[in-house]
């Protein structure tokens, strides 16, 4: 690698105008660094989606393959096998999935959508694809039914008709059951949409059709007429058969269940209202809420199960949604946390004409998936092994760490496993299909999510799986007993006082620091031992606003004595929470600081509170929200900032080391002309994760600020994560940076601890803190630390501002340091040690990472580091200690960057950026060459901006919905290995044997009657369907879909099999066509012969 020579650079060094898109500041820079990263190392693709399917609408289960499918209102399809086998697909139209039907044990799935299209998915490949689609144009689809081991799909419509589709060719049959033929004269009015279709379990030739109005018809497919009609005066929601095919049960809109004999005309043999109050005088029970679905499942040894959702009486106001299980004389009402979307009973057999032997019920709720064990007393639920609890409380922030220390995940797992709930079913999770992928990625990955209720969750994200490791409740530190006045204000302002805003984590030392919306910072240490903290250590910090018009010049500086009050209320220095006129404005400023617990706190193994820092009210002003946070375990310091300034806390000595207004950081060389103003003019509320145009200032005021911190730093409120505020990103944000608008405050946007050259021309490395602001300035603070050991406990840390290093356009988002060869210099850290064990007098000596410094001439030494600074608009690389900008690149002119990270790839280091216009870009380091620019996704809401993060080795993630994490990769290597890493949904399984009919049933014609559906529905018998009824669309999932299937022999076999299937299908179609042509030629010759005979003896004038 060539040695970097600064002399060549300085010869032609000039500051270049910022309008040029990419600049090397210097004439012949390209050869100075040998950069290993190239464009072909990058490729962007989605890897996997985790979490609960957002807004679910339908569900299906394959009882042989043991795979669960869930469809959503946005057209997404999530497939679940055994824990770790998950798959996400998307219908292009985005229409809601109204019904799903597996082709049981065939590796295929039929989906029906709200836009009246039906699709066939091929699940025999790792990324399922659509084989065929059928789009209805004249009728709306309301219900589908696919009998077991049949290739004919029944489709019921809103007009009351039933159409039949061949699943193999996805062609409509000419056989149609018209509503008027089905009901004939039994009703004068239209019977309404089809709400149910199913065939008699014992006779495939008999089809039951349920109409919404209350009419049920038993249709004979062969004779094309109705055998029986059953009329009820209440609307029907669902129908279920007894497995012997002699009875069926209907659920109704008045909360009743009616049982009918197949041959019994007129009246049901039983009508019950399970949740209705029975009047004593024999009258009808009062009506209840509708029973939306009923299932009727039989067992060999005991009573049958009748399971239904809904049907509660109307007077149970506030009662949670329920699933009712009736078994013999016992009725169990199982309350659910959320409304029920759908439920399925899992049975031992896939055959509808055998004893069902139900063993579990899968209940799909609006925000959860529950599986109930029917075999155990009390119906316990199974412990859900999927990562479906991401949204337990709304996610407010995320961090993603790839390539963590190897001992971290086992350590977090061991403390997290003690938090498990008890009382689950003892049985294995029943959804157990599929196989895991053969992953080659072996490095540990951890995702941390912060939530609106103050919880922090640690997830193991290694090898494209996700599993919760450990959950920390930060709200335990505070008193929760809030007064009635407070409750009133929380309802109005919809606040989450404990919500996590920013997290800082050091994986090596396991130190964790979180900042909450109530302007509090909590420092945690990791311990494997339980401990009881008598008094929670508390530090109170007064961060004053900028200079007041009436204040003396030193009034805004450092009046800030930090009160060290170990257990006392945080309101000792600020005013108490009385509703004074200044604090009770409509802008939500009356949110008091949280009160720290005064009672002893029992802390179990895991993360334990070391220190709480609270910003307090100053002269009637609520504290400003914290906008940036960092910690360094080697220095024992935590630093946080807001729009008032910076505070540095020594968490070893539990003292405030520095508390400076932003203006003081500049010293005498402040480049901005600041207007003195009263702090009350633009007060912001302290609570709530302020959205882009929420808070005290109006959105027009906010727009004036070119780099308002609220755009890039403050995440939106966790309580309503679906604020679609597209307009907030479309506005232009270019304006002169040097003149600040009166309303704009310079907030602190980023911190970076490092050992570097603090001043121009320094020859020694010193511990420093680099501070980035929302106006694009990077300021340097020098840290003077006492020697390690006992002295570190006693002597103070001294911090002195040095002034400004560089200025960029837009708010500073990220900083990093490189050594002279262009390798990343990570901040120093202490290794983890057990904090609750003190060996006699032995102190842990902090180990600092050695920084490579070549002890040669001062000229060579002087160029041994580079700092990378990335703002919302541009990136710069500055050489230290000469402090000259050697590279500069304007990343975006029209948009702005929401997230930037300096990441380590396996081939080198780069800057990864996510822009508000949806582009994901990477730049080389230190040369800032553009390596990748992909228009990935437009920013549709603030959630993506708030949760997007890049990490090492080409991994990234964001919350694509309030309940789901989408992981993506920008590494070519990972994209190539992805196919192997993904799990397989379909595995070859033998279909269970059909139930034995028995000797007598076979002799006397009992048992299941089969039917040649091909004979009835095929083109020969039924003719062709009307072309205008539905359009067939071939899908991309044929041979093209197989191209991405697993390589090697298995893949080749699969491809060969699919090719044979397709060839066989084409040959079959050809044969059918030939047969049809022969038939039509035959009929033509017959007609011609008849015509000839008729006309043979006629004279010409007789025609």
UniProtKB/TrEMBL annotation:
InterPro entries: Lethal2_giant, Lgl_C_dom, LLGL2, V_SNARE_CC, WD40/YVTN_repeat-like_dom_sf, WD40_repeat_dom_sf, WD40_rpt. One of its GO terms (molecular function) is syntaxin binding. One of its GO terms (cellular component) is SNARE complex. Residues 1038-1098 form the V-SNARE coiled-coil homology domain. WD repeats lie at residues 229-263. The keyword DNA repair does not apply. It is found in: Cell membrane; Cytoplasm. Residues 569-586 have a biased composition (Low complexity). GO terms for biological process: exocytosis; Golgi to plasma membrane transport; protein transport. Pfam families: Lgl_C, LLGL, WD40. The keyword Transcription does not apply. Belongs to the WD repeat L(2)GL family. PANTHER family: LETHAL 2 GIANT LARVAE PROTEIN, SYNTAXIN-BINDING PROTEIN 5. This is Syntaxin-binding protein 5-like.
């Amino acid at each position: 690698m060539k040695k970097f020579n600064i002399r060549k650079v300085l010869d032609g060094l000039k500051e270049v105008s910022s309008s040029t898109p990419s600049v090397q500041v210097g004439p012949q820079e390209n050869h100075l660094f040998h950069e290993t990263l190239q464009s072909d190392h990058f490729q962007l693709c989605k890897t996997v989606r985790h979490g609960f399917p957002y807004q679910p609408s339908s569900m299906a289960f394959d009882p042989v393959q043991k795979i669960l499918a869930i469809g959503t209102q946005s057209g997404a399809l999530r497939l679940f096998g055994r824990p770790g086998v998950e798959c996400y697909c998307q219908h292009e139209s985005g229409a809601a999935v109204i019904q799903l039907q597996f082709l049981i044990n065939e590796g295929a799935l039929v989906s029906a959508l709200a836009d009246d299209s039906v699709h066939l998915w091929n699940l025999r490949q790792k990324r399922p694809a659509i084989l065929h689609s059928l789009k209805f144009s004249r009728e709306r689809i309301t219900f589908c039914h696919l009998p077991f081991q049949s290739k004919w799909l029944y489709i019921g419509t809103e007009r009351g008709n039933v159409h039949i589709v061949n699943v193999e060719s996805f062609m409509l049959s000419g056989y149609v059951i018209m509503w008027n033929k089905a009901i004939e004269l039994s009703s004068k009015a239209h019977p309404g949409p089809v709400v149910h279709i199913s065939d008699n379990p014992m006779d495939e030739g008999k089809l039951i059709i349920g109409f919404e109005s209350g009419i049920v018809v038993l249709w004979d497919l062969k004779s094309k007429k109705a055998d029986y009609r059953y009329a009820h005066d209440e609307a029907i929601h669902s129908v279920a058969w007894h497995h012997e095919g002699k009875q069926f049960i209907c659920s109704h809109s008045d909360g009743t269940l009616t049982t009918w004999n197949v041959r019994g005309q007129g009246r049901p043999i039983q009508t019950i209202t399970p949740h209705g109050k029975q009047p004593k005088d024999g009258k009808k029970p009062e009506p209840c809420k509708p029973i939306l679905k009923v299932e009727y499942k039989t067992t060999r040894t005991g009573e049958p199960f009748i399971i239904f959702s809904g049907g509660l009486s109307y007077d149970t106001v506030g009662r949670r949604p329920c699933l009712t299980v009736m078994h013999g004389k016992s009725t169990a009402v199982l309350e659910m946390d959320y409304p029920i979307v759908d439920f399925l009973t899992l049975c031992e057999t896939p055959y509808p004409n055998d004893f069902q032997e139900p063993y579990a019920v899968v209940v799909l709720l609006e925000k959860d998936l529950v599986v109930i064990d029917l075999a155990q007393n009390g119906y316990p639920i199974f412990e859900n092994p999927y990562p479906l609890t991401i949204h337990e409380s709304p996610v407010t922030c995320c961090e993603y760490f790839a390539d963590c220390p190897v001992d971290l995940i086992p350590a977090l797992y061991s403390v997290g496993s003690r938090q498990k709930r008890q009382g689950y079913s003892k049985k294995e999770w029943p959804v157990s299909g599929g196989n895991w992928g053969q992953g080659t990625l072996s490095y540990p990955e951890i995702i941390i999510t912060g939530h609106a209720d103050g919880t922090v969750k640690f997830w193991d994200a290694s090898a494209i799986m996700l599993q919760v490791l450990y959950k920390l409740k930060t709200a335990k530190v505070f008193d929760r007993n809030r007064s009635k006045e407070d409750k009133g204000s929380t309802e109005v302002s919809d606040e989450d006082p404990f919500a996590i805003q920013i997290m800082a984590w050091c994986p090596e030392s396991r130190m964790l620091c979180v900042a909450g919306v109530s302007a509090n910072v909590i420092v945690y240490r990791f311990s494997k031992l339980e401990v009881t903290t008598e008094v929670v250590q508390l530090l109170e910090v007064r961060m004053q606003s900028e200079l007041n018009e009436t204040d003396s010049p030193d009034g805004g500086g450092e009046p800030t004595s930090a009160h060290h009050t170990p257990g006392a209320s945080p309101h000792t220095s600020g005013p108490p929470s009385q509703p004074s006129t200044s604090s009770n404005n409509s802008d939500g400023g009356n949110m008091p600081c949280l009160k720290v617990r005064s009672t002893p706190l029992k802390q179990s193994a895991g993360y334990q509170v070391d220190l709480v820092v609270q910003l307090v009210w100053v002269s009637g002003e609520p504290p400003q929200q914290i906008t940036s946070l960092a910690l360094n375990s080697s220095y024992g310091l935590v630093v946080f900032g807001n729009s008032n300034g910076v505070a540095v806390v020594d968490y070893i000595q539990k003292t405030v080391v520095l508390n400076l207004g932003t203006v003081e950081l500049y010293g005498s060389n402040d480049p901005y002309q600041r207007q003195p103003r009263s702090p009350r003019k633009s007060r912001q509320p302290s609570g709530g994760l302020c959205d882009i145009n929420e808070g005290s200032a109006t959105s027009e005021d906010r727009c004036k600020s070119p780099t308002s911190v609220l755009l890039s730093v403050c995440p939106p409120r966790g309580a309503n994560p679906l604020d679609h505020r597209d307009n907030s990103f479309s506005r232009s944000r270019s304006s002169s940076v040097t003149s600040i608008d009166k309303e704009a405050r310079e907030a602190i946007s980023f911190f970076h601890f490092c050992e570097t050259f603090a001043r121009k021309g320094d020859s020694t490395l010193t511990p420093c803190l680099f501070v980035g602001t929302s106006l694009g300035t990077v300021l340097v603070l020098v840290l003077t630390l006492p020697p390690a050991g006992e002295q570190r406990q006693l002597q103070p840390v001294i911090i002195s501002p040095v002034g400004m290093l560089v200025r960029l356009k837009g708010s500073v988002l990220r900083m990093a340091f490189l050594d002279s060869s262009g390798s990343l210099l990570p901040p120093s850290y202490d290794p983890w040690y057990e904090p609750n064990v003190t060996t006699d007098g032995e102190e842990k000596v902090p180990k600092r990472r050695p920084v490579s410094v070549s002890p040669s001439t001062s000229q060579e030494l002087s160029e041994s580091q580079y700092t990378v600074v990335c703002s919302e608009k541009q990136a710069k690389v500055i050489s230290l200690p000469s402090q000259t900008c050697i590279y500069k690149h304007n990343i975006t002119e029209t948009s702005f960057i929401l997230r930037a990270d300096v990441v380590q790839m396996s081939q080198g280091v780069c800057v990864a950026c996510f822009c508000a216009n949806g582009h994901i870009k990477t730049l080389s380091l230190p040369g800032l060459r553009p390596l990748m620019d992909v228009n990935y996704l437009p920013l549709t809401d603030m959630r993506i901006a708030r949760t997007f993060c890049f990490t090492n080795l080409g991994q990234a993630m964001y919350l694509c919905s309030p309940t789901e994490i989408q992981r993506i990769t920008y590494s070519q290597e990972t994209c190539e290995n992805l196919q192997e890493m993904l799990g397989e949904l379909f595995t070859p399984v033998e279909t269970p044997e059909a139930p034995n009919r028995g000797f007598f049933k076979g002799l006397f014609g009992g048992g299941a009657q089969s039917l040649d559906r091909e004979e009835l529905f095929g083109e020969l018998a039924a003719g062709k369907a009307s072309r205008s009824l539905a359009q067939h669309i071939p899908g991309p999932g044929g041979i093209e879909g197989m191209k991405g299937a697993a390589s090697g022999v298995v893949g080749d076999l699969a491809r060969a099999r699919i090719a044979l299937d397709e060839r066989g299908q084409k040959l079959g179609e050809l044969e059918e066509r030939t047969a049809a042509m022969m038939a039509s030629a035959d009929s033509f010759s017959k007609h011609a012969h008849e015509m000839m005979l008729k006309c043979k003896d006629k004279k010409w004038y007789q025609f």
